[in-house]
Amino acid sequence: MVRPIMKDQLFLSMKSSPADEQDLEIARDLLDTLSANAEVCVGMAANMIGVAKRIIAFDNEGTYMVMFNPEIVKTSGPYTTEEGCLSLPGRRTAKRYRSIKVQYQTETFQTRLKTFTGWTAQIIQHEIDHCNGILI
To answer: Class for domain 9-131, per CATH?
Structure first.
């Protein structure tokens, strides 16, 4: 189900709770909402659709990917960029890393560790910031 985009900055600035198997429907709604906004959005966190759970969905080089409980465990290559967000007006400066290693859980809640680089890494960092209540 496509959900409305959350704009309440107080809600968005709260840390999200860990996700579990009962949150699979939220992940489906997140993917539906991301797909519906694909022309203007490349990633979303669950709090952007009003659910404070640690779930993100993003465009991983042409295929949508979902992560439950993502955590960045290693970074390299810091840089500064400018980003926009569906939940916030305008564009803002953000510090990002060219390469990140992420520990996360799949839709079957198996733990994975994967390195992402470039644009995909930037998207993931933005969405994990959302999970941590960090607004760009």
So the answer is: alpha beta
Measured CA to CA, the distance from residue 46 to residue 107 in angstroms comes to: 14
Domain boundaries, the chain: 9-131
Q: Which of 21, 71, 83, 127 is catalytic?
A: 127
CA distance 51 to 5: 11
83 catalytic, yes or no?
A: no
Measured CA to CA, the distance from residue 66 to residue 27 in angstroms comes to 7
Burial class (CB in 10 A: 0-12, 13-18, 19+), 40: exposed
Burial grade of 78 (CB within 10 A; 0-12, 13-18, 19 or more): exposed
pLDDT digits (tens, 9 = 90+) for 91-136: 999 999 999 999 999 999 999 999 999 999 999 999 999 999 998 8
